[in-house]
Design a protein that fits this description.
Layout lengths: L2 H7 L4 E6 L9 H7 L9 E4 L5 E6 L5 E6 L5 H12 L2 E7 L5 H13 L4 E5 L20 H12 L17 E6 L10 H14 L3 E6 L3 H13 L6 E5 L7 H9 L5 H9 L3 H21 L4 E5 L5 H10 L1
Parallel strand pairs: 1-2, 1-10, 2-5, 5-6, 6-7, 7-8, 8-9, 9-10
Antiparallel strand pairs: 3-4
Helix pairs in contact: 4-5, 5-6, 10-11
């Protein structure tokens, strides 16, 4: 079932989670062990992230350096299929522009269609480590907007090979990312909102936000979307503060600010066990307010850990 249909048919706030593929060589059991404790809360979907390749350099006998790619977290499509048939829950594999040609993207979509996976999250993706700016693949999509258009074309039965005979259309539901504090590369909020409106107009069915810790920022973002004529469901993204290192890590990795009150309380904690309890309390308060305001779903960035998310879900659902 399409995520957007579940959201539109639901009268109460739903629950969804996001997991990270295990490192290459590790068992999928690590994914199952993170999801099993959360299944009693009936998640409507499980997002599966995609991590593009990283590059390493090896010194050759002639003294020159040779660059080669390393895929440290493969398996997004395979994991999505495993989750669908193990848990009977809709998986939402992430599709990214980086590292894919348009033909490779089309082939991935065909595989997902064969597996009866009907939901995807369309993202540009990050730049390669050590590259200052995002560089698309040759013959690849440069922006999420282009990726969305390719998915919509496939939904209309339009393949890259224009001479394709008897082409079967796909039927993907497309989610996209939204940024309550704007995308870090956007020059301002207005520009960021214009890009989001273009993605929705191109065919995006719903929005999942970047993580945030101040609900006021989400409510402002939500209202701004409505003022722009964006009417699709908007799902807030939640992540729990769990260690003191998060005070530096979360702003640098996700470009999300932490409220002064939260920062001050984290610094008072004597150890990370106390930080984790504080993070749970903060997230519970966040989610209660969001639920009271009628958000369609609460999406948790679990990062492969279920304890904190379970504690919050017990309090909220």
């Amino acid at each position: 079932m399409k995520v957007v249909d579940i959201l539109n048919q639901s009268e109460s706030t739903q629950f969804s989670i996001e997991v990270i593929p295990p490192l290459k060589g590790e068992s999928i059991e690590s994914i199952y062990s993170a999801i099993d404790p959360l299944m009693e809360f009936n998640p409507i979907s499980i997002n599966v992230t995609y991590h593009r390749e990283e590059y390493e350099y090896k010194k050759m006998p002639d003294g020159l350096l040779k660059r080669y790619s390393v895929r440290k977290r493969p398996g997004t499509v395979g994991i999505a299929a495993a989750l669908k048939y193990r848990y009977k829950v809709e998986p939402v594999p992430h599709l990214i522009c980086g590292g894919f040609s348009r033909e490779e993207t089309e082939n991935a979509l065909i595989d997902l269609n064969y597996l009866d996976i009907k939901n995807v999250l369309a993202l540009r993706g990050d730049s390669v480590k050590n590259e200052k700016y995002f560089v698309p693949e040759p013959e690849g999509n440069s922006y999420a907007l282009e990726l969305i258009r390719q998915i919509v074309q496939l939904n209309n039965g339009q393949y890259l090979n224009e001479d394709q005979k008897n082409a079967s259309p796909s039927d993907f539901c497309i989610g996209v990312a939204g940024y309550p504090e704007k995308h870090f590369e956007s020059p301002n909020l207005e520009y960021d909102m214009d890009i989001l409106k273009q993605k929705v107009d191109a065919g995006a069915d719903y929005i999942v936000t970047q993580l945030f810790f101040d609900n006021a920022k989400f409510f402002e973002f939500e209202q701004r979307c409505r003022d722009y004529g964006i009417t699709v469901p908007i799902i807030p993204g939640i992540k729990l503060v769990a260690t003191k290192k998060h005070l530096k890590l979360l702003p640098s990795m996700f470009h999300a600010t932490l409220p002064e009150d939260l920062t001050r309380e984290v610094l008072k904690c004597k150890d990370n066990a106390a930080v984790r309890e504080l993070g749970i309390e903060w997230a519970v308060a966040q989610c209660r307010e969001l639920k009271e305001r009628g958000v369609p779903c609460l999406h948790f960035y679990t990062m492969g850990r279920s304890y904190g998310t379970r504690r919050v879900a017990e309090a909220i659902f």
